[in-house]
Amino acid sequence: MHWPRIHLPPGYHRNQRIVRPMLPPGVVGQWRGPNLLVDGDMEDLGVSAWTVANGTMTKETGSPKQGGQLGRITQASSTSAYIRQSGITSYIMYRLSGWVRITPISDACRIYGDGDPIWIGSTTPNVWEYFDFLFMLQGTYMLFYSRGPSGAYAEFDDLYMSEETVPANRFPDGTMEGYGIGSWPLTSATGSTEKITTNPYAGIQALRVTRGTGVSHTTTYGLTSGIDYRMTGYARSCGNCIPNVFSGATRWTGNTSTDWQSIDVTWTSNTTALRLETTSGGVGGYSDWDSLLLVEV
Ligand SMILES: [Ca+2]
Ligand SMILES: [Ca+2]
Question: How many angstroms does the Cα of residue 289 sit away from the middle of ligand 1?
Answer without folding.
Answer: 41
